[in-house]
Design a protein that fits this description.
Largest sheet: 3 strands, antiparallel
Number of strands: 5
Distance between the termini: 160 Å
Number of helices: 1
Shape: rod-shaped
Radius of gyration: 58 Å
Structural class: alpha+beta
Strand content: 5-15%
Amino acid sequence: MYPDHAPQRAVEVHQPTPIPPPVVHSAPVVPVQPGTVPAVASIVLPDGRVVTGYAVEPARPEPVAAKPAVSRTAVNVALGGVGFLAVCGGLLLLTSFIAALTAFIGQLIILAAVIFGGWIAIQVLSTSGHKGGTTVNIRRAVFKRNHFHG
């Protein structure tokens, strides 16, 4: 094949040697208070080996809490709707109160104008006070002491 390569040697195959199972000596049983050390369990395998170890209890899943009949989202939406209706009712009452207060203030202003205007009219047209009389010429008519002289 290639002149500069040495010929290959034959491949040697090694078979693995089986390891004999270890000799198991049973340990003396020592009494132990319950609850301090976990229980030790021994299992005999089909090939005769004994495996000793702590017994591990399988993990138990936590109990699933029962779902409520109504979802939390539905309850939150319902409570939000109730709150919104309460706010709308309050706003409606507030606007009604503001409208009534505005009307009341307007009526007070009108009442004050009527009373003040009447007081001014009484002051101008009253006869009590001075006896001389005031003469006012309006379109050639003469008012003397609140009597018309034409």
